[in-house]
Write a structure and sequence with these properties.
Elements (H helix, E strand, L loop, with lengths): L1 H21 L5 E6 L5 E8 L6 E7 L4 E10 L5 E7 L4 E6 L1 E7 L2 E9 L5 E8 L1 E2 L11 E5 L4 E7 L5 E7 L11 E7 L6 E9 L4 E8 L9 E4 L6 E8 L7 E11 L15 E2 L1 E2 L6 E8 L5 E8 L3 E8 L9 E6 L5 E5 L9 E6 L2 E9 L7 E10 L2 E4 L11 E2 L6 E8 L5 E8 L3 E9 L9 E6 L5 E5 L8 E6 L2 E9 L6 E10 L2
Parallel strand pairs: 1-3, 10-12, 11-13, 20-23, 30-32, 31-33
Antiparallel strand pairs: 2-9, 3-8, 4-7, 4-9, 5-6, 5-8, 12-19, 13-18, 14-17, 14-19, 15-16, 15-18, 21-22, 22-29, 23-28, 24-27, 24-29, 25-26, 25-28, 32-39, 33-38, 34-37, 34-39, 35-36, 35-38
Length: 511
């Protein structure tokens, strides 16, 4: 009896180990690589440390070049892909990014895990699409077929001066998966400078005519186009190198991906038709909206009501994973007077306005920047914060002359000026408990001018405990936790030979 129980337990344990090998009862089947430009894509999530995700797919023909790509979503992690034959014979181990192997017809398995056992969401793409030379003209273009889902292919621009052409069409039912925009993007593991021209077949002319182009809207110098195609339309795409002198690009990827973008309620092109901004959840100091500028001449207006004097921060950011675009922000009073505006931040082409506002109604306008082409999908975020605004009092050039800042309200905004002759601005803070301070310099209220400051924190004995030069663009930012005591914040001009106005924002929090 005991021996029979032990054998049964061993069988159950063996089955359990078999299931554990896959991390689930059976791998998830994601499709077959059949046809010239087949692309399989699946989203997954590693929800606990050490989790293994298993997938299976088919290859239709012998000696097929199969490409693997994995990328994280909303986080970062070193992911790993292990490829096995159907009988679980190991074939290859592939790290995060892009890799390729040659496979014969058959069924294969892929295991995804995190090298450091991190929890992260990801997208796994397996594809067999590869450019076929010579595709150097419209009539010789590679035929990608109907865009029934994401299409990813591998290509090269070689020798120098090469141009690649691709043809594709939109299904009679339109874009799949409720998508309303087609994203066309080049990218690669190394640097590359591409340009794209998109052509649409004109039935009246009986030929392909150019409709839009892009040079550097993708990451780095890569390219990205966003278009809203209609059902059954036919397109051709030209990809070429634009760096000078031309050196060729050994490898790049081309992605054609149907995506869903949030479109703002039109018409909202004037303050009279502005869309009221909606609070984020139950918060009353944070608002957000998403929109789409459909052309470089489009303008989106939003309305907001400020209940009390506050510091307001308005910024644009990417919608989804569609990268950086060139936006322009303007803040207006109801009578049309401009309060503040901004084109580019210190780090990218998105926009940011930070200024003090009195209670009242205001309008925010989102426009395309000078270098924007085509569609501009964006997120608009607004945050308000109650602060005590004070003016700098000179002289404050040394610890003995330092101006005291009272941070009992939690946030203080100092309006200050760096003068000539290597001016130094010193501010004193007294902490009665351990406190986390965030100190940052920025432009004068209502402006977007950038100057180069340095910021340092000294203790009571004038030992430096923190220093920063350019963490906030050319402006400075320090976040540090300090014990109870007296501290000095010192702001200087990096160059020491210019005069400019600036703001110093100090926020404090303690447990």
């Amino acid at each position: 009896m005991k021996r029979g129980w032990l054998l049964a337990w061993m069988m159950i344990l063996a089955l359990g180990l078999g299931f554990a090998t896959h991390g689930q009862s059976a791998p998830t089947y994601i499709g077959s690589l059949s046809g010239a430009f087949a692309t399989l894509s699946v989203s997954g999530e590693l929800t606990y440390a050490g989790e293994l995700d298993w997938y299976t797919f088919d290859v239709a023909a012998d000696e097929t070049g199969v490409f693997f790509r994995i990328r994280t979503v909303g986080g970062s992690a070193d992911l790993r892909m292990l490829v096995f034959e159907e009988d679980e014979t190991h074939i290859a181990s592939l790290e995060s990014g892009d890799a390729s192997i040659t496979l014969d017809a058959g069924t294969y398995r892929v295991r995804v895990d995190s090298v450091d056992s991190e929890q992260v969401s990801y997208v796994l793409t397996i594809y067999n699409g590869a450019e076929t030379e010579g595709n150097d003209g419209l009539t010789e273009a590679n035929d990608v077929g109907e865009i029934a889902g994401p299409v990813l292919l591998s290509a090269a621009l070689a020798p120098a001066g090469d141009a690649d052409f691709y043809r594709f069409s939109i299904p009679a039912s339109g874009l799949p998966l409720d998508a309303n925009v087609l994203s066309i993007e080049t990218f690669g593991a190394s640097a590359g400078d591409t340009a794209m021209v998109l052509y649409r077949f004109d039935e009246g002319e009986g030929r392909y005519l150019p409709v839009t182009s892009d040079d550097d809207s993708g990451d780095g110098y890569w390219s990205r186009l966003l278009v809203q195609p209609t059902a059954s339309e036919r397109y051709a795409l030209r990809v070429e190198e634009t760096v000078y002198p031309l050196v060729g690009i050994a490898a790049y990827r081309l992605m054609l991906e149907p995506v869903f973008l949030i479109v703002d309620a039109e018409p909202n092109d004037t303050s009279a038709t502005a869309v009221p901004l909606q609070p984020v959840g139950s918060e009353t100091d944070q608002w957000a909206s998403s929109g789409l500028l459909e052309s470089v001449s489009d303008v989106d207006f939003y309305a907001i009501t400020i209940a009390e004097e506050c510091l307001i921060e308005i910024r644009t950011a990417a919608q989804g994973t569609l990268g950086d675009h060139d936006s322009y922000l303007t803040l207006y009073q109801p009578n049309g007077d401009r309060v503040a505006d901004n084109d580019d931040t210190e780090t990218d082409e998105w926009s940011r306005i930070s200024t003090m506002l009195d209670p009242g109604d205001y309008f925010i306008a989102v426009e395309a920047g000078a270098y924007q082409e085509g569609f501009l999908p964006y997120q608009l975020e607004v945050i308000t914060r109650r602060v005590q605004a004070v003016d700098e009092v000179e002289p404050n050039d040394a610890d003995t002359e330092s101006q005291e800042i009272d941070i009992s309200t939690g946030a203080v905004l100092v309006n200050a000026v760096i003068g000539l002759d290597a001016d130094i601005d010193a501010f004193r803070i007294v902490l009665d408990r351990e406190t986390t301070l965030v100190c940052e310099t920025g432009p004068e209220m209502g402006t977007s001018e950038a100057y180069d400051t340095t910021l340092a924190v000294y203790d009571e004995d004038l030992w430096e405990v923190a220093y920063n030069d350019d963490s906030n663009g050319t402006w400075s930012r320090i976040e540090t936790t300090l014990e109870a005591g007296t501290y000095y914040l010192v702001v200087e001009s990096y160059y020491g030979d210019e005069t400019f106005g600036y703001t110093l924002l100090v926020t404090a929090s303690s447990d």
